[in-house]
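DM from R.C. (forwarded with permission)

"hey, sorry to bug you on a friday — could you get me a structure for this? deadline for the figure draft is monday and I only need the backbone to look sensible"
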Amino acid sequence: MQAIMPFPDISNEIFSFPIFGFHVALRWYAVAYLVGLIAGWRIIVALMRRAHLWPGGTAPMDPKRVEDLLSAIILGVIVGGRLGFVLFYRPDHYLAHPGDILKIWEGGMSFHGGFLGVIFAGLWFCRRHRVPALQLADAMALVAPIGLFLGRIANFINAELWGRPSDLPWAVIFPGDAAQDCPGIAPGSCARHPSQLYEAGLEGLLLGLVLFVALRRGALKSPGLMTGLFLTGYGLSRFLVEFFRQADAQFITPDNPLGHVIRFAGLGLSMGQLLSLPMIVAGLWLVRRARG
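My reply, with the result:
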């Protein structure tokens, strides 16, 4: 099993320094969140200033309100992402160690949980400021691939959420535990799918391009259409990549090496696939509803 694409020699910390005995560091994952949120904020402001893009030539909210929206979304992403990881992926551990729930610096965020957090934050914002929920969701859907792309690149740099063992020419020998456990391969030389890059390409670049084309074709004039395209596109992308992505360790057992959470007739679904199915269904329903 030979990896042609070497793992880049990039530290997961952009810079670090000690303060009063504490190790303070700026990590790529934090920068990905920050840049994604700021870029999304500025794009949504620009959308709200272009009334001609919206139904009836009226934007759903004042551009000045987008700053308040950003604060709500940040809270929704952090709280939802963390609770999603706790509930979907490691409930037994956190039930036994509830204090660990607050240790977000140790890692552990779920996209699907963060997505639910954003939904609740967005609905609260719409109710508070009397903003049409579907139109706001369309604006947020348009910018979401930016954060997804940056987040998956950060996952790759951090050498986390890697793929299953592979002998393809672009397989990568990730550092740490990822390189240790391929059957029949010497420890330290296990090459794997760079599934983080697959997701960056599908969820970020390709889905972003689809939504941009939809924007150019007037999709914002049909409330729910952009949201439906995003949900369908993300759900399908994640469902596909899960075939190449290593399952979380807590789901893998000797009789379930692929980490399926549902198995039937010799087939199975991972947790990521299971959580993506409702997104696909909801997305297709919204597309059909928007197109009348």
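R.C.: lifesaver. The chain has eight helices and four strands.
me: no worries. Residues 30 and 40 are 15 Å apart (CA to CA).
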